[in-house]
Amino acid sequence: MSTRPPTEGTAPLERLTRLTRLARLRDTYGTVPRPRRELVIFGLALLCGLILMPFLVWFAGSRVLGPYTHGQNTHAGPLALVADFFSGLAHGSLVFWAVALGPALLLLLIRLFVALVRALPDPRDD
User: Fold this and answer.
1) Any idea what DSSP says for residue 50?
2) What are the structural domain ranges in the chain?
3) 42, 107 Cβ separation under 8 angstroms
4) Which residues are paired to 73 by β-bridges?
5) Positions of E strands within the chain
6) What is the 8-class DSSP label of residue 92?
7) pTM of the complete model
8) Which of 106, 1, 118, 98 is nearest to 44 (CA)?
9) pLDDT tens, 29-63?
């Protein structure tokens, strides 16, 4: 089944509905109390650090350093690294916790930098 190509009249309407949905999402996001919104943002950053970062480390390491070895298995996959990652977290290794908290710390540093830049006096006010 083939679909009809968009005509000139449908493209702006589709764009308008996308903009409307984005505006509605922004309005909904703006009504959430700030502490709850911050908890959601940092919770997502922490979830990224716990779930996404081990896979990114495995992907980058396998491309640059070669395959991940786990004991006698010389071609262990990403799940072996994830298991070792959570084991390191459970044992309290600071390196593993630094990786897990990395996205949240990066977000915090970016926000701090933006706040410092906003606090600088405007040079045009001279």
Assistant:
1) I
2) 34-120
3) yes
4) 70
5) 68-70, 73-76
6) T
7) 0.68
8) 106
9) 778 888 888 898 899 999 999 999 999 999 999 89
